[in-house]
Amino acid sequence: MIMKSSARPRILVVDDEPMNVELLQAYLQLDYDVLSAHNGQDALEIVFREVPDIVLLDVMMPGINGYQVCEQLKSSERTQFIPVVLVTALSGREDRLKGIEAGADDFLTKPVDRLELKMRVRSLLRIKDLHDNLIRERDQAQNYLDVAAVMLLLIDREQKIRLINKRGLEILGYEESEVLGKDFFFDFIPESNVPGMKNYFLNALESSEKTIDYYECPVVTKQDGQRMISWYSKSLTDENGKTSGVLFSGQDITIRKRAEEKLRKQTRAMEASIDGMAIMDENSIYTYVNDAHARIFGYENPDELIGKKWDILYKDPEIKKLKKEILPEFRTRGKWKGELLGKKKDGTLFYQEVSLTALDKGLISVVRDVSKRKEVEARLNQYASQLKNSNELKDLFTDILRHDLLNPAGVVKGFTDVLLNDETDDRKKYKLQLINSNVSRLIEMIESAARFARLEGMDELEFKSMDLAAIIRNVAADFEPQLFDKNIKLDMNISGSHPAMLNPLIDGVFINFISNAIKYGPSDSTVTVTVEDLGDEWKVMVSDLGEGISDKDKKLIFNRFQRLTEKKKAVKGSGLGLAIAKRIVELHGGNIGVDDNPAGKGSMFWATVKKA
Ligand code: ADP
Fold first, then answer.
1. Ligand 1 pocket, 603 CB below 6 A?
2. Are 55 and 24 in contact (CB under 8 A)?
């Protein structure tokens, strides 16, 4: 910007003849400050240094002549607008043309007339003054543009950038000289956005002056990055009323856009959540409620809750609890989590899991309806107590079996024995024997059932180290009468002691195996008992030479009351023996099973127990 340094205009007089300089000085010094130079070189130096308001320039000088000085002044940005008056002795047309070509503003012919000089100088100064004012205004306008917080760009009809302000340069990252005259669309708009932005530009160019349209489009910066800009445009017209270009103002909204995108993503996640989410402001008013939150509380849409206070979703005593205990705790710790009874729109209450988290202002609450879970829990509790009842029933049943059924059956058996002893009539004796054997069976079944029920209810047994071989030998000794009856030989392949961790109940397993082997084995055969060392365990095997058990029945027979049909009639039994044996072995932590007898015929029942 050009500033005036003094109130009086300054005039530089250049002439190689000192007398001429003095004369002009004399004419002018009353009204102006007069500077002087005696050759072209000095003249240029003074003009550049002092920037006078007018230069009166002699043409014919040795060295750099007047035309050359004038040309140089007119080609420099700093001095181009200083009026130059060529003072010449020549008045030929040729010389004038040369002067005009060199950029001279006016001419005076020597000898200089005083009045003419004064008039020329005054009018040139007036023009200069007007011009200076224009420049000042232009600079002022440029200043305004530069302080603007938005980017301002003037794009001409050829799409070239004609003007850009400071903010624009900051956003683009370029110097002014790198931008002016460049094709706006080609150099500064991402390729994919060019058609849209061009369209926007052409619309602005064609539409009337007043329309200001809004458009979003990124620009490419010098660092090869992109900034998102929101644009406003306004077409500009020249003095003939023709549209000369478009003035764009652009605001950098990159950060705002990113924040908006983040917020949108978060909101989408909240909208999609199956949990209820709500945001409350510092006055406990809902400012955001997602669909799930509204649904959980029985509202059709979130708008019904936005703007309302939280306590419409609760009821005393929950409201009191929240105010007195929960919210104070939440305020000190910044979060809270727990179960509350929520109130639906229709007034019904439901269990919900709630977590509260403090925000800058207000809080966010996440709510989950847990009434279903609560229902299941309640049902499970009920079931557990029923189960307890059923165990109690089972105990009662076991007691009834043992005391109330076994006793009368024992009495019947006792009297039958007495009667049998005394009876001599064979027909009556036969009937009494039938009663006797059936009542024996009844007693056996009651005992088995009671044992089984007792074992079922047990979770664990106490063990101590016992000699397995001794237990088996004891059991075998009790079967001597039955072995004798069917003439069966019992082969015992057990020598020495076999210490194992056992409970006395274990003998029930071997009683069952050996009695079955005798029951289902043929007369005049052999039953073999063997103990094998498996390392950590002993395996006890009882084999017979009976009909054996088919593969499909091998698993079934360990179930309760499972008896194989063909044998039912021939052999008496309860079908509980193997189920009891299995339970005893399980309680010992061992295994039980049946295989075909490796000897070729019959079956081999086995059980494993842990060594001591
Ligand atoms: P039961 O009192 O009927 O003998 P168990 O539970 O001891 O009851 O046996 C169940 C069924 O397994 C028997 O009814 C019988 O069909 C079959 N069974 C058991 N041991 C043998 C065996 N050694 N040989 C053939 N079948 C057997």
1. yes
2. no
pLDDT of residue 567: 53
- Which residues, other chains included, contact 201 with Cβ-Cβ below 8 Å and sequence gap of 6+? 155, 159, 185, 233, 246
Please give the Cα distance from 368 to 339 (Å, whole number).
Answer: 9
pLDDT at 4: 45
- Indicate if 268-375 has the same CATH topology as 1-146: no
Q: How far apart are the C-alpha atoms of 69 and 224, rounded to whole Å?
A: 46
Q: How far is the CA of 516 from the centre of ligand 1 (A)?
A: 6
The length of the chain, given as a count of residues: 612
Å from CA of 501 to ligand 1 middle? 27
Look up the pTM and report it: 0.42
Quote the ligand 1 centre to 571 CA distance (angstroms): 9
Does ligand 1 come within 6 angstroms of the Cβ of 577?
yes
Query: How do the domains of the chain map onto residue ranges?
Result: 1-146, 149-252, 268-375, 390-458, 464-610
Neighbour tally for 569: CB within 10 Å:
7
Can you give the pLDDT at residue 566?
55
pLDDT tens, residue by residue, 316-366: 899 999 999 999 999 999 999 999 999 999 999 999 999 999 988 899 999
Q: Which residue has the CA at smallest separation from atom 18 of ligand 1?
A: 516
| Residue 544, ligand 1, Cβ within 6 A | yes
- Confirm or reject: Cβ of 449 under 6 Å from ligand 1: no
The CATH number corresponding to 1-146 among 3.30.70.141, 3.40.50.2300, 3.90.230.10, 3.90.25.10 equals 3.40.50.2300
User: Angle formed by the axes of helices 426-457 and 371-399, to 10°?
Assistant: 150
Instruction: Report the distance separating Cα 231 and Cα 201, nearest Å.
Output: 10
| Spans of the chain, pLDDT less than 50 | 1-5
The hierarchical CATH code for the domain 149-252 is: 3.30.450.20
